[in-house]
Design goal:
about 500 residues; 19 helices; about 0% strand
């Protein structure tokens, strides 16, 4: 009897040790409503403030429709994430999902780094948007605005970095509070903008000779719109913290996307009824502030600018730690190389430094259009790989519906192709930069996997036999622990 009790203790201790390899997460600490606010708060970030004008430049007055189509594309993409979260609820998020599909391989590491890169790019997008709106408080900035925008963005990143290094426990609460203010503020902007507009004729999208009305232009605008929705992946990263994750992760994603569709639709309508298409395109980096002026004057501009600054600062505060945590987890999984560079502290603090440095470079040297382009290319490439991994390697475990999965892959590929075509015509240099970064990441991972030695125990036979081999080792360890516990008794 004593041996049986000790055996259970040994097994419980083994399980606890295995779980403690990753950071601790409070299981069941996030309700369905809380997870919806989390996803919505991340999605409604810099995208709605800065992407509106860029999308209008690609597809003219149809940019609100492009937002809707982007939501449909993301809805199909969310299918795989819901299935994976239901089967493997964890704090590992996309990195863990890719590892489940492809094993501890170069394929997993490469696409996980693409997702990490897109998240770093999103940080730079937040910082640069902060600068673009903040500079509107100085109408006489003139040519100096070209330096003030990246300068303010860099300053914000450094400030948030210092706050994160301090390890303050109230970061999550502050970011959450700012998220609520952001969502409510944007809703107020949309409702007031529509209510006080002189005419609603512009709220109905029409095809006009202005802007790029080609199919490729519309697909390109849709791709940018996806950036405004891809924050739903944050919900999957909290799988271990959400109450009843097997039910609530999927529900939270669907509700968050639906809320964003409504809010984006109202904001898009408020912009087009108060600005001409030419004005939206010309003021694309601060279109919401420009749209507030005709109905509310300087008060409206100040309100929108402060709202944008609050939203981007809060988003950056919450995201920098999350992004660095993802890189730390990839490091612990031995999927990416790591060097301390003689820095004190743990891996999490090191990856925080790397993440901030990359964000500073992007913010200082790339404008919003190019930052967005890199982000969507990396994200959609990773997204297609994830769907393919579900179909190719996890079909038996997850039993996905083929029609939905292949529709998601097809839509991603179609939208990415249209976006690449538009950028090839407008800005081929950014495509060269994206290709160079992707090749650099791939070569780095190939060299790292060649030099790192054998993979972690339990994965020697790759993906095809990885899970089976892992279970065999678990049984072996449990049997050995049982014998030791019995002998001790």
């Amino acid at each position: 009897m004593l041996g049986s009790v000790d055996n259970k203790k040994v097994k419980a201790q083994m399980k606890s040790n295995a779980e403690n390899k990753s950071p601790d997460y409070a299981e069941g600490s996030l309700s369905l409503a809380g997870s919806v606010w989390l996803g919505t708060g991340v999605m409604i970030g810099a995208g709605i403030f800065a992407l509106t004008g860029q999308m209008a430049g690609m597809t003219g007055a149809l940019f609100p429709v492009a937002f809707l189509v982007a939501a449909i594309v993301v809805g199909f993409s969310a299918y795989s994430y819901v299935l994976l979260s239901h089967k493997f609820p964890s704090a590992g998020g996309i990195g863990m999902f890719l590892e489940k599909a492809y094993g501890p391989s170069v394929t997993t590491a490469f696409h996980a780094l693409l997702m990490y890169s897109s998240m770093v790019i999103a940080q730079s997008f937040l910082a640069r948007t902060f600068g673009s709106y903040a500079v509107q408080l100085w109408p006489g900035a003139g040519d100096a605005a070209g330096y003030l925008v990246p300068g303010l963005g860099v300053g914000l990143i450094l400030l948030v970095f210092a706050v994160n290094l301090a390890g303050t426990k109230w970061i999550g609460r502050v970011a959450g509070s700012l998220g609520v203010i952001k969502v409510v503020g944007i809703a107020v902007f949309a409702i007031v903008g529509l209510t006080l507009a002189e005419s609603w004729s512009g709220a109905i999208p029409t095809v006009s000779p202005e802007g790029d009305m080609s199919i490729a232009g519309f697909l390109g605008a849709t791709a940018l719109g996806i950036l405004a929705f891809k924050g739903f992946t944050t919900i999957t990263n909290s799988g271990s913290e959400i109450v009843d994750p097997r039910r609530n992760v999927g529900r939270a994603i669907i509700i968050a996307i639906a809320l964003c569709i409504v809010i984006y639709g109202l904001v898009g309508a408020a912009v087009v009824v108060n600005l001409s298409l030419d004005e939206i395109v010309a003021k694309r980096d601060y279109a919401l502030a420009a749209a507030a002026r005709p109905v509310l004057g300087d008060v409206g501009v100040w309100f929108t600018v402060i709202l944008a600054m609050t939203a981007t600062a809060g988003g950056l505060l919450a995201s920098i730690f999350a992004v660095s945590r993802m890189l730390a987890m990839l490091t612990e999984m031995r999927l990416v190389p790591h060097s301390h560079f003689r820095m004190p502290g743990d891996i999490q603090q090191h990856t925080l430094v790397y993440t901030v440095v990359l964000g500073l470079v992007l913010t200082a040297f790339f404008d919003l259009s190019r930052i967005a382009a890199l982000g969507i290319i990396f994200y959609l490439t990773m997204d297609i790989a994830l769907h393919w991994g579900v179909w190719r390697h996890l079909r038996q475990e997850l039993q996905p519906r083929a029609a939905i999965l292949w529709t998601a892959i097809g839509l991603d590929a179609l939208v990415l192709s249209g976006f690449l075509l538009v950028k090839f015509e407008q800005d081929p240099a950014i495509l060269a930069v994206a290709l160079a970064i992707m090749l650099g990441l791939l070569v780095m991972e190939l060299v790292y996997f060649r030099l790192r030695g054998p993979p972690p125990e339990g994965h020697e036979h790759g993906h095809e036999h990885g899970h089976e081999h892992e279970h065999e080792h678990e049984h072996e360890h449990e049997h050995q622990a049982s014998e030791e516990a019995t002998a001790h008794s």
